[in-house]
Queue: 2 jobs
Job 1
Amino acid sequence: MPEARPPIKLDFTSGLDQLPARPKMDAASTQASVIAGREFGFEGRHLEKLDGRRLRSRGANIQLNLKVTEEEKQRIIVAASKLIQDPSSPIKNLGEFVVFAVDSLKTPQS
């Protein structure tokens, strides 16, 4: 069995105080870079990165568990997928599909 190598301690902090100071940016070249960037269509940084989960949130926070057969599950998934993938459909997820299905069953009682 080969002998284990002795561990090596990596030191990333010694000598940091001896590093040269960072050079100051030239204001003229910085301004020229900004002007050139605007000519090519760069506007600058976005203010905030948007969280897609918050944009898609519709306030649904209660879980609903259903027991169905495998065939029923596939029928539901196929029907929901058609509406979810349709860009003109207001349905964007399975929860909205279930609500849509229940609402479509409501008919005036005659």
Job 2
Amino acid sequence: MATPAWRLLRLSGQVDLRLSSNLITRSNLPTNLRVGYSFGLSVRNISNLKANNTNSLRDRTLSWLSRNASSKTLSLSQELAAQVNSFTAVPFPVSDTARSNEAFTDASTDAVDTDSEYAARYPTKRIVGYWFLYCAALVFAIVVVGGVTRLTESGLSITEWNLISGMKPPRTEEEWNVEFNKYKLFPEYKLLNHNITLNEFKFIFYMEWGHRMLGRFIGLSFILPGLYFAARGYMSPAIRNRSLLIATLIGGQGILGWYMVKSGLREELMEAKAFHGVSQYWLAAHLGSAFIIYSMMLLTGFEILRTSGRNASVLAKQIVTLTQTQPAFKTFSRSTHQIATLIFLTAFSGAFVAGLDAGLIYNEFPFMGNSLMPSDMWALSDAAVHEKPIPKWRNLLENASAVQFNHRWLAMTTATAVAGLWVASRRFTLPRSSRLAVNALIGVTALQVTLGISTLLYLVPVPLAAAHQSGSLLLLSTSLWLLHTLRRLPK
């Protein structure tokens, strides 16, 4: 089938108009038309058309250029194409470059046509996508604040949980003394902070109060706009149901947080040889839940913005093409899900490290003592040492040495997997967003490994440890971004 000249002009800017041995070059064009030429139009190789069309086509083309020399509003490429098509029905020979560009533009044109289909299939407003990303940013912030709260031993300073009255902090000296006296009744004060002053108590109180207030703010920021968007029909049924699930998880997160605090207020902790604060199980559940809420918000925001944007199907077409033409790409795409899972598990294991203060032992790398595995890996199961030995598998969750070992090697496995993914990505011509995401992933991984080792070697200083926890969420974010860009179609 003959390729229309207007398509050749629009796509590649190169027209093989075979007329004789004459060429239309930049110097042949009138002065005020050279600007359009300079922006990409190259009219070349006008030669060798059939003899009966040669003279008339050339003369009429040049005559048209001269007549329109004074018009500054004409689109040179489109008008020239229209004139040439009106002169002759002779097919124009198409160069390889033109064929390639035409195929690309056909895909782009198809993408424009199918954008309306995407919008009809996913009828969620773009503002809802921005709202999800805003809420995800708030969750990121509360994870950072929560990490600093834990590192400064502030989490048990408020010994009650009141949803409404707890919003008001103490104002007078008398109110502060009431709160301070409540704190003195519990194990953390008696075992760890018995020398704390009222001013020092105020600092840890405000840290925990700020963490709780940010949690309330996130709840309101998600629920109130969510109700408005749902009432106005801004959400598709699927997004509305997902929003309801996330709102439920946010409510559950508050309950998890209180049970975590309550686990550090138990009187039986007075009998413990070492006070570690809250239960590592509740801490891991609280942190893991925050990561799940964050991931759901982030992926939902990405999905909405992708399906409601211009040329929404272009990326999907590229991914489909890669999947069909390169069988190994499907394996590559699936591996991004596995790496995201590894990153989550590594961060989850970090909560056990924090809960047991496991970062304060074996402050060396890569060895733990004289070997890669600590000698007391299964110490809690040794009947000769403990009156009530526990099953071996519980060492992995309750023995500080085993917990640190787990976290180290999960981290090294994750870093190795990310490096392998990056190397594998060089085999494929990835979309620009995917290439950017995979490069960001290897960079953030290197940063996170550096922060983790530094935190260990320097005995867990607050700034480094807080940066390390924040880095875990940044790493998860980057992996989810990559995973999203490689999806064939939004789900």
